[in-house]
Specification:
Helix content: 40-55%
CATH superfamily: GIY-YIG endonuclease
Structural class: alpha+beta
CATH class: Alpha Beta
Shape: globular
CATH topology: GIY-YIG endonuclease
Strand content: 15-25%
Largest sheet: 3 strands, antiparallel
Distance between the termini: 27 Å
Order of helices and strands: EEHHEHHH
């Protein structure tokens, strides 16, 4: 069984948020950036990858995604700020 990424996309700092899970973070972030990531992310232009975390098992990643989706917005903002206090788009780091 392979692992997976839990990630958060945003349209701007402290803006709209989308929590997702994938086994290929670079591909999925690219899909969101180009508008192929889904109707919600396309509608709200959620193109900034602002948070990510790796899990060795995809089942654990899915469980974590489900938990984070149920969190209050403030907790999600705190999670992002702990890893990415300047709200930089982490997509560029994936390409390096």
């Amino acid at each position: 069984m392979q692992g997976g990424w839990v990630y958060i996309m945003a349209n701007r700092p402290f803006g709209s948020l989308y929590v997702g899970v994938t086994n290929d973070l670079a591909r999925r972030a690219w899909q969101h950036r180009t508008g192929c990531g889904g109707s919600f992310t396309g509608r709200y232009r959620l193109t900034m990858l602002v948070y990510s975390e790796w899990h060795e098992e995809i089942v654990r990643a899915i469980q974590r995604e489900t938990s984070i989706k149920r969190w209050p917005r403030k907790w999600k903002l705190n999670l992002i700020e702990m890893q990415n206090p300047e709200w930089r788009d982490m997509y560029e780091i994936l390409l390096a």
